[in-house]
Amino acid sequence: MQEISPLAVAQQQLDMAAEKLNLDPNIHALLREPARVMEVNFPVRMDDGSVKVFKGYRAQHNNAIGPAKGGIRFHPQVTMEEVKALSMWMTFKCGVLGLPYGGGKGGVVVDPTTLSRSELERLSRAYIGAIAAIIGPEQDIPAPDVNTNPQIMAWMMDEFSKYKGGVTYPGVVTGKPIINGGSLGRSEATGRGCVIIIREAAKRLGIDLHKATAVIQGFGNVGSATARFLAKEGVKIIAIMEIDGGIYNQDGIDPEELLAYRAKNGTITSYPGTRPIDNEELFTLECDILVPAALENQITAANADRIKAKLIAEAANGPTTPEADEILMKKGRFLTPDILTNAGGVTVSYFEWVQNFMHYYWTADEVNSRLEQKMVEAFACIYQMSQEYKVGMRMAAYMFSLARLAEAIQSRGWA
Ligand code: GLU
Questions:
Q1: Which positions are catalytic?
Q2: Nearest 5°: phi and psi at 94?
Q3: Nearest Cα residue to atom 10 of ligand 1
Q4: Tens of pLDDT along 258-298?
Q5: What ranges make up the beta strands (E) of 190-281?
Q6: pLDDT in tens, 230-239
Q7: I need a surface site. Which of 9, 65, 252, 387 has the fewest CB within 10 A?
Q8: Measured distance CA(276)–CA(302) in Å, rounded
Q9: β-strands 51-60, 36-45 pairing
Q10: In terms of CATH, what superfamily is 35-180?
């Protein structure tokens, strides 16, 4: 997966939008790399008494519009290049939604499934201790990403608060448990947002969701919530892929039942009434909607021309390479880009951060209706731009976000 550099992909996407906008070369150069990247090596005491040294990163791409914002992932394949790319995508994602942030991203090179709960806690705390000097509610606000969750955010908030002499800083991370200053609706916000974007796109494409079929790669936080909300809209989910294998059923898979099955059995692969499916077949299935909800570089020049889905909704960050984008465009596939499609997560993170400053908390209905409004508006704006400039949705999203950012950079006197 790492043969195609995610940073090269992010830079190529930026370069193309910069050319269309005739962007000032200094602004372009500034945005091709993060403003700041920290690499840390830190020790963690393991349960057997030994000490292991882990490597982690935090990248802050840009802060022209506001503090850096973005998740932290725990994954064995995390690299500095990947974290840099992910921080760039966060800048453009926040811009598409009009959030007052720049992009950030962090990662630790670790397979968290090999750790006990107490090792995971010590690792989370040690990582935050190592990057504490550069984060904070007004500087850089982490959140969950691949393999991190509300409990980990609670440990991180607690550790940062200790670092600050015991003053509790709920606004230093988002995606926290509700009791620690989390927002209602945050856990499922990314999936909810994805389905809002799918619904808006389906309207334009004339896809009737009650008759539509969907295929989902990934059944983690985002993939499973997307599956649940899609099923509620009447979409039939015919195939789902997880790390240890995929399942297919022409007549549809109930995501709620599948979640209950996994909670009991630890896997989805043996789910009754389905047959196994591999990644290659998954991407080329006859269906209306394809949702990549796993990692980067899944739709490439090697499989793009065999994709039959009418609508591809990028729930993951960076799942499609620029070569694949071009192939999909030529084939008339409609793609909603990651920086729009999966922006529901960071949008509700923004609501959480605002609530932390106000010390006043909204109801689930308030959160969800504000999310709905923001996502619908963002879709309409990017769609209109794509029609006006006759470009794909990804290019339109970059152009919109970049123009806004360039204005902020210029008026701050950085270019
Ligand atoms: N990790 C999520 C993303 O890639 C959420 C970031 C956030 O909430 O700050 O958008």
A1: 105
A2: -60, -35
A3: 346
A4: 999 999 999 999 999 999 999 999 999 999 999 999 999 99
A5: 213-217, 236-242, 245-248, 275-277
A6: 999 999 999 9
A7: 387
A8: 22
A9: antiparallel
A10: Leucine Dehydrogenase, chain A, domain 1 (3.40.50.10860)
